[in-house]
Each structure stands twice: as structure tokens, then as C-alpha cells.
Amino acid sequence: MTRRDGGPAIVLLVDDDVADQELTRRVLRDDVINTDLRVVSDGAAALDYLLRRGAFAAGGRAPRPDLILLDLNMPRVDGKQVLREMRNHATLRSIPVVVLTTSRQEEDIIRSYNLGCNSFISKPVTIDGFMQTIRQLGTYWFELVRLPEPAEEEEA
Length: 156
What we know:
Elements: E1 9-14, H1 18-31, E2 35-40, H2 43-51, E3 67-70, H3 79-87, E4 97-101, H4 106-114, E5 119-122, H5 127-144, H6 152-155
């Protein structure tokens, strides 16, 4: 997938697990063509990124993601709070969000969909299973799905 400007699709990974960050980085780099992975370690940093605040206020530091991979259980601000904020913010609500979490609890699944996630995936427990899941996500979101282009005012 490429952006309208011809650049790589931007994926924002919001996950506090360093090992999962590295595996995701490796799979996207090796298996998914033309992606730019941005990583933050908690929901507070994700909201700063998305709203271009704090460390992300400088121009170009936080390009609008084409897809967000969001963990639910993180320090400071959890994934459910990030979803709630995004879906209540006019310029963020159209960004697709895939919840990628260790949780298998029905309550988390229901709440995530009610808050507006586009998909809910429980992380596999094996490294190979996790890497295969990321590959399949890449294929689905970057080869099969057609995503809306952001409005001009959303890109600023």
C-alpha cells in the first residue's frame, strides 16, 4: 500500500512490549512492502502522536497513520482510552484500528468493538504464530482493503 503522495503506508504500533515491537518491526520490514512503522510504548504517547502534542508537536514528527495496531493493556493510558479519544475526535475517527492484545476476554472484545475498533486479534503465544499474524494483517490491510483517503484538513 502506498499513500496518495506515493510514500509508504504509515503504521502506528502502540505496544509496551519491546519484544512484540521488534517482531512487528521485523515482519513489516521483511514481508510488507512500503510501510513506515512508527512505535510508541503507551496510550499517552499514542494520543500525543495522534494529536501532535509534546514531543510530536514539531512538524513532520507525527504523520497521520494509515493503520494503528493497538495493545489494550498498557501503562498510563490503556488502549480502550485511546480508542475512546480517537472516536470522539473528528480528525482521528476514520483511522482504522486493529486491537492486537494478549486478552481473550469477551468483555475486552465487546468493549473494543463498541469503542470503534475495526478488528480485534488476540496475540498468539508463540513467536512463529505472532509473526504469521502480523504477516496476515499486512496482507489484509495493505493488499485487500481499500482505505479512505484522509481529508485535506486531516493531513495538516
